[in-house]
């Protein structure tokens, strides 16, 4: 190494996926969100505050009263501690709501609580932008507390339902 130069070291990042049951394997959609496996992987940057965003613009569940489909645009933001949610398991978990009857509030807040239970993030918020049911859009918002200082948390910027025109 030339005089005056320093070696650059990168942190050791765990890529061990041996404990995961869904990643890299064929997996069908679960029949029920409670039965869905939600997996986590180690945060490659523990101790560094940053925001992770998942957007599900075609989320679907069923109205528990009529059985008709309900549609939402979900935006999930979180600041991880030790764990990240494994994205394939999150997709399958969200897909499990397609045949699940629950009100908008139950789906939106339930997803947040499940992620908090599995990941123990520093902070989490979810915006559930639901399309009209009975002519009225019902949007549901939840966050676990104040956003941590010093972390860029972008606005969700999902426009409210405007109907035709």
Model description:
Catalyzes the NADPH-dependent reduction of 7-cyano-7-deazaguanine (preQ0) to 7-aminomethyl-7-deazaguanine (preQ1). Its EC number is 1.7.1.13. Belongs to the GTP cyclohydrolase I family. QueF type 1 subfamily. There is one protein chain. The protein has 165 residues and is an alpha+beta fold. The protein has a domain at 37-143: GTP cyclohydrolase I, C-terminal domain/NADPH-dependent 7-cyano-7-deazaguanine reductase, N-terminal domain (GTP Cyclohydrolase I, domain 2, 2-Layer Sandwich), CATH 3.30.1130.10. Helices cover 15% and strands 25% of the residues. It has 2 helices and 6 strands, in the order E-E-E-E-H-H-E-E. The protein has helices at 87-95, 104-119; strands at 40-42, 52-62, 69-79, 83-85, 123-130, 139-143. The chain has a 4-stranded antiparallel β-sheet with strand order 2-3-5-6, covered by helices on one side. A hairpin with a 6-residue loop joins strand 2 and strand 3. The longest helix has 16 residues, at 104-119. It starts with 39 loop residues before the first strand and ends in a 22-residue tail after the last strand.
